[in-house]
Design a protein that fits this description.
This protein is mainly beta. It folds into two domains: 5-59 and 66-115 and 167-208, Beta Barrel (Elongation Factor Tu (Ef-tu), domain 3); 116-164, no CATH class. Helices cover 7% and strands 41% of the residues. The protein has helices spanning 42-45, 62-67, 120-124; strands spanning 5-17, 23-31, 34-40, 49-56, 75-82, 94-95, 104-111, 117-118, 162-163, 168-180, 185-189, 199-208. The protein has a six-stranded antiparallel beta barrel. A four-stranded antiparallel sheet has the order 5-4-3-6. The two termini are 29 Å apart. The mean pLDDT is 87.
């Protein structure tokens, strides 16, 4: 049994040339190798899942060291991946980028680039206020947020200025263009959330893409 997802780090974007001369924009992700640090079963935990460890370190605090004792390795990052069947999976088992092949469709989950505090125009695409008739300081203002005498309050969830980015994002159905097992690098067609060196979880979808 092979796991359906791996932890990695985003390297950046580049281009790949197919044999016919077609240029494809891809994102390179250093994926794995990942090791099984814990196996959860439906009988014991109520569901089946596998906890993966990525990027070995020399030391950790006592709670994490104790938790990872059975795997024989210490990891900087841990992520849990739900699986349909975990019977054949063992703690300490290694998985690498070879679980993905050209043409597979995958989902990429990571945290988007943080852009700090942003106004309504940048955050939500507001058009701003009028540019004429003496409105010299209202070009990027959000305008009224009132809701009248009924209900007489600001509605929860109203689009306003605030923190932009740095949120968990999943980009679905990205096509695998190339899988390099020697360098542990996966090339997927399209964009992957996050900045360079940010943590990414790549998981399989139930489908095949169209290889060029």
């Amino acid at each position: 049994m092979s796991v359906q997802a791996l932890i990695g780090k985003k390297i950046g974007t580049t281009e790949i040339f197919h044999e016919g001369g077609e240029v494809v924009a891809v994102t390179a992700v250093k994926l794995g190798p990942c090791f099984v640090s814990q196996v959860k079963t439906n009988d014991v935990d109520g569901y089946d899942s596998v906890q993966l460890g990525f990027e070995e370190v020399s030391s950790l605090n006592n709670p994490l060291s104790g938790h990872l004792g059975k795997s024989g390795k210490l990891f900087r990052y841990l992520r849990e991946v739900q699986e349909e069947e975990v019977g054949a999976t063992k703690v300490g088992q290694e998985f690498d980028v070879s679980i993905f092949s050209e043409g597979d469709l995958v989902n990429a989950t990571g945290f988007s680039k943080g852009k700090g505090f942003a106004g309504g125009v940048k955050r939500h695409g507001f058009r701003g206020g009028p540019k004429t008739h003496g409105q010299s300081d209202r070009h990027r203002a959000p305008g009224s947020i009132g809701a009248g005498s009924t209900p007489g309050r600001v509605i929860k969830g109203l689009k306003m200025a605030g923190h932009l980015g740095d949120s968990r994002v999943t980009v679905r159905n990205l096509e695998v263009v190339r899988s390099d097992s020697e360098k542990h690098v996966l090339f997927v067609k399209g964009s992957v959330p996050g900045s360079r060196n940010s943590l990414v979880l790549i998981s399989k979808t139930n489908g095949k893409g169209h290889s060029g």
